[in-house]
Structures are given as structure tokens and as C-alpha cells.
Amino acid sequence: MKPIDVGLLGIGTVGSGTWDVLRRNASEIERRAGRGIRISMVADKDTKKALGIVKKQARVVADGFALVRDKNIDIVVELVGGYTVAKDLVLEAIRNGKHVVTANKALLATHGNEIFKAAQKKGVMVAFEASVAGGIPIIKALREGLAANRIEWIAGIINGTSNFILSEMRDKGASFGDALRNAQRHGYAEADPTFDIEGVDAAHKLTILSALAFGIPMQFPKAYTEGVSQLTQDDIRYAEQLGYRIKLLGITKRTAKGIELRVHPTLIPTKRLIANVEGVMNAILVKGDAVGPTMYYGAGAGSQPTASAVVADLVDITRLITSDPEHRVPHLAFQPDRLARDPILPIGEVETSYYLRMLVKDQPGVLADVTRILADSRISIGAMVQKEPAAGQSRVDIVMLTHKAIEKNVNAAMAQIEKLTTVLGKVTRIRLEELL
Q1: Mean pLDDT of 18-42
Q2: Coil, strand, or helix at residue 422?
Q3: Distance CA 358, CA 238 (A)
Q4: I need a surface site. Which of 36, 74, 89, 126 has the fewest CB within 10 A?
């Protein structure tokens, strides 16, 4: 049987990994897919670099549109990244009847609804396992392995850069700035790390996971995003003393009022497996009503792990082309005409527990004033730490863990607390999840 011909858009880190994995494991992949899969054409602006990698074993062009319009290409793999040219290339590939594999989470989170609609109309598949958590097969788990379940919630460490920074802060006592510079030295963070440290990258991925879990359209603009750049050693230390660790989590939950879609630093009990995921590794917890909590762990980025997911998508599409093209798994797990219209919950309506830290004057009545404000806002305290001031100091930290409360009530209470003359500066607020 004729091999499947693949066109590769971009042969950078992931593209070169995909080329390598397909060639190294060609025999194994053919046995799994039922026919050979070969990259026969590569498009990259740096044609000299591309020629050095493929060594005349594939045609190299500089124009991506020439590739997606080539009649001999069966599947297009998009690895150029970004929102603009990548979108145009993917839509042009679909218009030309090509199946598409992409690792581009930003593209799908922002333009996925349009792309999937075009693919459905044309009768082609868009596969995107590599778009979330690198080599971890979380997309397939949600679309297929957990298909019997009503998904209740997902909570994931889905950005390795921020997780590395938090690990450095906890393990080595590094400041945020020092930990970020170390991440950049290791190549884990970009020169401009904004998307990673402010939670935007994680929000792109969470948008995709939420759509798959709950059968809703992609709604990235409604995701609440808060990064790790404001965290301090004080917060890391107090969390540890209270039996928690701080992780940047992407959390999406189904509630009676709507779907929660939020990324922010989160206290997690130290005894939870996900709290012990360190460095650049990723981990995702999924709670289904039948299966209960399940966790998926592995490398969230890198040439070979991400290539593993890209090639797995190529194998899936090849199987469909070869055997049963009319019964493919829907792009977002649910049939396209059965997507739900559940609203995305504003962050102010979210109900969770909180860590609150405030610097106060060391004088009588301060704690009574703070607890009165919390009680008036229907916020109860679950645990508290009040340190004795050092010799000669007249101010002290108070740290509280609350029971579950509505976020807008917590915000209102914080605003009142910050007006007290005995409270110095802003209240630090970090959300807390037990993940049971």
C-alpha cells in the first residue's frame, strides 16, 4: 500500500524531532498504522538549515502555501506557531482537502472554532495531541479513554517554565527573579517569558482541555489568568509550614452556575501527588464521575516528547484514511452539533478556599478587626499562623487559610482589611484547592 505523504511546515525544535522519530521508528510506526508514513516535503524559510536536516530525503521549499496546495501531500503538520500565518496555512490546507496535525495551542485556543468548523465541512481531520502537555497523551485520554465519564474537573501543571521557577524558589530559596534567570540560562524560558510566567500559555492549553472535557466551544478570552511573578519567598515558606505547596494550576470545573476556567497560583496539600511534580515536568489531574481522579504525568515540552505526540496523531489519521474515514472521533470529543452552551463563570463567582497573608502592626485588636471583617463577608477561617515579631520589630505577618468562599466576597473583605490603619500594604491572596 502506498505510504502516506506528509508535508512538514517548520523544521525547528519539534519539526526536527518529528523527522527523527518518524525515521528512527519507521518500521514500528508502519506496523501500528497499517502503512508507511513519510515526510516527503518540508517548508521552512531557512532552507539551508532544512536541507541540512533532511539530506535530500525530502523536497524543501521556502513557501508554506506551496506545500499545503501540493496535490501529493495527504497530511500537513503545522509547527510554525503563532496566530496569523499559521492560521492562514491551516485553513488553506483544509480548503485543499488535507488532514492537519498541529502543536499550536495558541492557534487552537483563539481560532479553533473556525478551524474545526472548516474541517468538518470539508470532511478532514485536525489532530492536536501535541498542543497540550507535550508527550502526555491527555487529548486522547479525554476524547477516548474517559468517554464513558461525565468529567467533573481538571487541574493541571501545564507550563513547565513556571513550575521550574516555583521549584527553584522552594528548593533553593531563590527569589522569583533569580529563578527566572536560571530558567532562561537552561533554555526553559524565552527571552520574553511573559506568556509562561503570567499564565497565558497555560490558559491556551486549559481552553482546549475545557472544550474537550465539557463539550463546549473554545472560549479563551473568558479564561481568568494570573501568573507567578508576584510570588515571594514568604508565601513559599508559609505554605510549606501549613502543609501546602504552591503550583501554577490550570483549573476548569463544571458547576451548577457554569464552567470555571482559570489559571493562577494555587496552594495544594503536600500529600497530593501533583504537589510533588517538580522542575519542568507537567501533570494533569482529571476527575470523572465513574473513574474518579486520574493523573497524567510526563514531559510537557521538548523536541522528542512533543514529536511523540505529533507522530501519534499521524498514526491515528493514517488509520482513519486506511480503514474507516467516516467514523472518526469528533475534534472536541462531542459531536459538533451537540456542543453545550454552558456559560464560563466570571472569576468573581468562583467558590474555593484561600490563603491570605497580611503585614500588620503588632498591637492589640488587629486580629479581632480582621476576623470581624471576614465574618461579615461570610468567610470562615480554617487555619492561622501569627509569627512573633523579631526583636526591635513592630510589625508582623498574619497568615490565614479560609474555608470555601465566593471570590467576590473575598475581594470585598480584602478591600476593607487594606483600609485598616493597622494593616500595612496589600493583602496577598492565593487560591487553595484540596483536589479530592
Answers
A1: 94
A2: coil
A3: 12
A4: 36
Q: Are residue 196 and residue 261 in the same domain, yes or no?
A: yes
Say if 347 falls within a structural domain: no
Average the pLDDT over 298-309 and give the result. Answer: 92
As a dihedral over the C-alpha atoms of residue 232, residue 235, residue 237, residue 243, rounded to 10 degrees, the angle is -150
Cα-only R_g, the chain = 24
Give the pLDDT confidence of 312-335 residue by residue, as tens digits: 999 999 988 876 555 566 676 677
**Host domain of residue 316:** 4-135+303-338
Q: What is the pLDDT of residue 320?
A: 84
Q: What angle do CA 418, 422, 423 make, to 5 degrees?
A: 35
Q: Give catalytic residue positions.
A: 205
CA distances from 235 to 264, 274, 355, 388, 399 (A): 14, 19, 9, 17, 9
Confidence of residue 177 (pLDDT cuts 50, 70, 90): very high
79 with 126, same domain: the answer is yes
Portion of the chain with pLDDT greater than 70, in percent: 97
Residue 343 lies in a domain: no
Are 129 and 81 found together in one domain? yes
User: Looking at the domain assignment, is residue 344 inside a domain?
Assistant: no
Q: Is the pLDDT of residue 227 over 90?
A: yes
In whole angstroms, give the CA distance from residue 191 to residue 114: 31
Neighbours of 87 (CB within 10 A): 19
pTM for the model stands at: 0.93
The SS3 call for residue 192 is coil
